[in-house]
Queue: 2 jobs
Job 1
Amino acid sequence: MILANLAALQVVVPLLSAPIGIALRRPTLAWAWATLVAVAAFACSIGLFFQVQATGTISYAIGNWPAPWGIEYRVDALSSYMLVLISGIAAAVLLYARESVEAEIDEGRIYLFYVAYLLCLAGLLGMVITGDAFNVFVFLEISSLSSYAMIALGRSRRAISAAYHYLILGTVGATFYVIGLGIVYMLTGTLNMGDLATLMEQAAGYRTLEVALAFFTVGLALKLALFPLHKWLPDAYTYAPSVVTAFLASTATKVALYVMIRVFFSVFGAAYLVEGIPVATVLMVLALAAMFSGSAVAIWQTDIKRSLAYSSVAQIGYMVLGVSLITVAGMTAGLLHLFNHALMKGALFLALGAVFLRIGSVHIKDMEGIARQMPLTMAAFVIGGLSLIGVPLTAGFISKWYLMMAAFQSGLWWLAVLIVLSSLLAVIYVWRVVEAAYLRPRPPGAVQAREAPWSMLVPMWGMALANIWFGLDTRFSMGAAEAAARAALGGAG
Amino acid sequence: MSPLLWILVTPLLGGVGIALAGRQPNLREGVTLLTAGALLVQVWMLLPEVLAGARPEAVLFDVVPHVPLAFAVEPLGMIFAAVAGSLWIVNSVYSIGYMRGNKEHNQTRFYLCFAISLSAAMGIAFAGNLFTLFVFYEVLTLSTYPLVTHHGNAAAREGGRTYLGILISTSIALLLTAIVWTWVATGTTDFRPGGILAGAVQGPEVGLLLFLFMFGIGKAALMPIHRWLPAAMVAPTPVSALLHAVAVVKAGVFSVVKVIVYVFGIDLLAAEPSAEWLLYAAGASIIIASLIALQQDNLKRRLAYSTVSQLSYVTLAAAILAPLSVMGAALHIAAHALGKITLFFAAGSIYTAAHKTKVSELNGIGRRMPWTMAAFTIGALSMIGLPPTAGFLSKWYMLMGAYDRAAWFAIGVIMLSTLLNAAYFLPIVYAAFFRKEAPHGHADAHGHGHGHGKGHGHGHHDDHDHGEAPLPIVLALCTTAAGTVLLFFLADVPLSLARQLIGGAP
């Protein structure tokens, strides 16, 4: 019974558990409830992953209304991989969250935070699992609205303006998505992705379809913060509570990229992208611009959260670059980096959250000499940083290896050169933090910190060690990314 | 578990022990010596097998599909591992004398990082493919960074930045690109006798790929990417010995020879005009570095530039592409290691006993520190390449190879640089033994007696009455000096390994 309905439970459990959280006003109770639900969602996604491995794609008709009339939940190699990633990160961040949230969010609002967190999780999982293009929009709005609320909970007054900024741009993005969808619906009369894909051939000749593709591209590029539509991201990541930053940085933009891959490859099909308007070329150029501009700006930031936010802009560039190659190797590299980047940014932001808890700042000046007082936290930061640079034995190296290989295999050796050159910029923005934390004395009069509590260290180190684990044992990440890439390209590559 | 893996794991286990024994210095140093001894025994136990023609290997799991972490012993790796394994224990004895004599802080971190870097050096020596080599190459860079920045002051930060910046950026930007290119072109990254690239790349591509490899291996310090080596001089002297002799630069030139012999293959490079540039680049590097060394007054900086020049000997010898000169390259890895570690030990010994760092302050010091300066002399002779020292052997083979291939440019470079080597080493020996010690305060007349503010105790050398350095230091430098001479007389083992490297029967 449970196994047969896992696909529905994956979304329904966090969605329905969220309102229950309103009744649990004690911060610890609210935290425990949210964590329990997130762990359950993680278990659910693992179950789904193995089901897909064993039996192939799962199609679940909500309310027994068969597709294409009813809403179909569809779990294939790509979506089960994403579900594991998102629910896993959500659970790890929640395990870490209790002390950090108590320190950074007003006590009266803490239970609301956990409600918003679960809603956001439900929205993200829903976007991944659904096979209905309009349903994607519904879940997109659920996750976006709850993330605006979570960002606005930050103590700094600028959190409000950051959330507002994100709200406006996020809404524009979502609206563009619906406009694109409306056009496609007009041309085909269906909203189910699988159905859309089969009907797309009839619509292929229309100029209107190209307009739809353009709307989709811009709308989703806004949500995934692709250069130059990334302006909302640095402020949102910087002023949001640490836990929110860690969660959103590891999941939200990734899901937007997932939807983009779905729309491009499952709905429009790789052939249309190659023959039609040059979307792939545009994406490649933007991705390269993101890689260099994001990293270059990251170097000059004094707030390390902000620096890592710009680094995310650059890293999103790598993922989009992989996708824009429209080959199985490129897509695999992009999806692999999506996974690995979630691990590295998770570890880094969790480490920063611990620093913020102890010294109330993540400014580079305030972090001088911190490694002597918080050695475990900073060691986790170093591991995450090495992974971000792409040093061997870390997950980041695997993504870079694949990305370069994909570029070489497409005959684009200059692209491989640009990839390594831009990754050198990461050395600079990571190492300035390491240098400050390890090789400078604690400034006189600075807050004396102590090591972060165990409840934070364990998830943080779990994430850091995952960076090393997935840098050595790539069977899960590689295998899943490759299967997902093949599923997405439908053998076209 | 395969003996190869034990060799890799031994220093790491030692590292754990060092960390656990951190609060008891005697126990901690005991663990270091024990680990170094265990490593030494294991490495030397491999030797008879390899000499007999066996090639033990161990393949772990695939990290990316079809690219496993793999280890295999071949003659060149055996030479490097034997050198690094043997010198670690000597260097540890020396470290104990030096670190205690100079009351350095954070000694536990120091010994721990040392152990990790030795494990990385073993990983490089026994790497079975380019991928594995690259992995341990980066581990070596990162594990030596805390050693280079040991003092933790502004100079250390600056030096560390140059060190890490150059080594990481060249390895990621160039070496990684070259490895991925090789993998895409040939479908393998294995080291195979005769090379893997023949038929996979042609024409100017060969030269370009060679460029990516040679400058990607920043640890070989081919000019103009040598700057990290003098920059790393901010580190304590045992670290300089590690960098210059035991592991780091040796890992660099080892990789250079390995790539030329086992990835390109001598025949491919010899037939391809676009690969010729390497000979000239290495030659220029030898001469220019020697000229710079000639002008250095700081003893350690002079030694550093001498290393840059000596490393390019290895690259030059490999680039001559004659079997005999490749033998010379392999021998020079061992010869230079023994000679240079002796020189650095001597420099550290002088600093510990006399607090002197400048060449111009060394007048008459041979009478106060006869053992140190005698060892220094032997090291210097080996650098110049005079018998009866190991340096003579390697130069001899290089010259024979160059003669075979009629590489007159290489012969000219070797001759000229021998003169230059003599010009910057012999005056030190002469001054130490035959000049009179300066009267009080004389060194300050040069105007830079106090200038650098680097070392503690700097500047009170004028009325410092000193003898030899602490016993562990003297013991260590006498051992390596003896080794330099012994290698000349007992050259059978390295020669036979080197002969196997170029395809000779065991």
Job 2
Amino acid sequence: MSKVLVVLETTASGLRSLSLPGITCGLQVARASGGELHLLILGAAPQAVAQAVAAAGYGAAAVHVLADPALEPFTAEAWADAIVHAARTLGATHIGGTATSSLRDALPRAAAILDAPLLPEVVAVKTGDTFTRPISAGRALLDAQASGSLIFFTARATEFEPPAVGAAVAVQTIASPGLNTRGAQVLSVKKTESARPALTEARIVVSGGRGMGKGENFQILEQLTDMLGGALGASRAATDAGMVPADLQVGQTGKIVAPDLYIAVAISGAIQHLAGMKGSKTIVAINKEKEAPIFQVADYGLVAKWEDALPRLIQLVRAHKSAT
Amino acid sequence: MKILVTLKRIPNPDEPLKFTVGGLDYSSHKWVPNAFDEYAVEAALRLAEKVGAPDRLAEVIVLSICPQGQRQHLIQFLGMGADRAIVVDADEDALDTGTVAKAIAAVYKREGCDLLIAGKLSQDNEGNQIAQRVAGILGAPQACFAATVEWDRGQRALIVSREVDDGVEVKRIPLPAVVSVDLRIVLPTSVQNGATPANHAYKEGARLASLRGITLAKKKPFQVLSLGDLGLGGPANERAVAVKAPPARKAGQIVGSVDDLFDKLTKEAKVL
Ligand SMILES: Cc1cc2nc3c(=O)[nH]c(=O)nc-3n(C[C@H](O)[C@H](O)[C@H](O)COP(=O)(O)OP(=O)(O)OC[C@H]3O[C@@H](n4cnc5c(N)ncnc54)[C@H](O)[C@@H]3O)c2cc1C
Ligand SMILES: Nc1ncnc2c1ncn2[C@@H]1O[C@H](COP(=O)(O)O)[C@@H](O)[C@H]1O
């Protein structure tokens, strides 16, 4: 019988919501391979979060905790060693989690230590060992099959709904083998402070590109974003030019988003940008060039300069919001 | 100090994909270097050189696992200024990711390297896992998705700022170590080695190989190894079952004015 172990992440206030899609993917793998889902929580003192997760159950057979001071702040070094230890202790056949920057960092390291394959950015589970994942900036979908007694995966967050709450399960403790960070040291973590919803979780995303000209011009996009209760995004050209912070980049190397509404302003629509937003339900493009490739994926395209279009759009949205 | 940089050749990402029954046909594609690997070499050269002086603080060795007749990309990197090249003679498309990582780790050990710089991602395969795997095999510290690197030569350590989900993490790793680079590593002052003046602004992007560089490149050491030389081989543990095009989006429409757009969004798409 298979044993699918999904690694979760925590924040100061509990389970990281981005961990939820990974649980759903893990459940699907467990079903496809005829086995059980197990959840793993790592941290310096993650017991309280583990209790809350165990109460929600999510269809898992058990929640496991491995506590060690070396697990906070996150380092790939200590986390990979912890995951390897948990995998051996539990006899896992599959190990995965949401494709966050932390698990993209730690899971391949753990997979290498255990000499196991890892299928990254899974968007669909075909069978217990065959998963679909995008390649070449999302221009193709590959069904890849992994073999061996242990298979790693990371799940693309936009492709799996959060899991339903299930029957409560028990929390089990895995004794730490004594972890360290192998000399690595986290000196600081600078979080981008924002009152807006996270890019990867927002229902509406408004993104600006190089055509915005300079950072100050993003104020008008922020105005629209806030009126819609959305998140702000950007193209690589805009982040590289320092108009907005790098973590707002949407695309192959940035955030993958799939909101209900994506508004791309002054973005040309390079394949690397499309790779990060093509899954959005409704796409709007505002660009002054009617040949811009972004129009090929847009549900609604407006050929206009943002300087002309945005003030009127903001006016209409404001009137609409105050009327409803 | 020895810096190993890994390079992958990829089918030109600007050419459209050609789908066959269940697969992809790259036979007419031009093969080009993976962009992240161009950035990796640029980062290595910036660490190794002292701008304005002939001194070199490190040797830069480029490594590619690729078949015979597909090695043009290495000449380009030698032309940019890398010191020598090592090739592992294999068709990397037939290898699994684990074997590619093992081959890189084996060369790293054989050469006694102090640092591996890899790209964060190969643009075709999008694995985002080679650097992490090599670090795991070596038991070395890792700093992935690097946006800036500062070399503390006195302490033999690197201070790396890494792009993480909601901001930037600064991580200090002792050498020997493994780094994977993100796009912003090639901004003008992203790499600091304590020898080139800190305010020296490099031209953004990876440097081009000069004509003279290419001529010199052809005389630089170029070593070819087999998987057997590295004690590797055996069946792959990953297999492509099928490749298909993603579902197409339905055709959109061009609207005539902002008012039209707003109308569509409220009444047709009902997203506002
Ligand atoms: C390895 C690699 C990875 C990459 N990853 C990413 C990624 O993750 N995300 C990403 O976004 N890019 C990525 N890129 C970069 C990508 O290829 C493009 O260069 C980038 O997306 C272009 O950004 P842009 O559309 O803002 O700029 P441009 O291509 O310069 O387009 C600007 C657009 O603005 C329009 N415009 C100008 N002025 C106005 C105006 N006043 N009003 C309205 N429209 C106007 C122009 O018509 C033009 O279409 C990557 C590239 C590489 C090589
Ligand atoms: N065949 C190869 N030869 C040399 N380096 C490689 C090869 N494949 C991958 N790499 C390196 O690993 C990085 C990440 O690749 P990937 O994990 O496939 O996304 C690339 O940017 C390269 O630096």
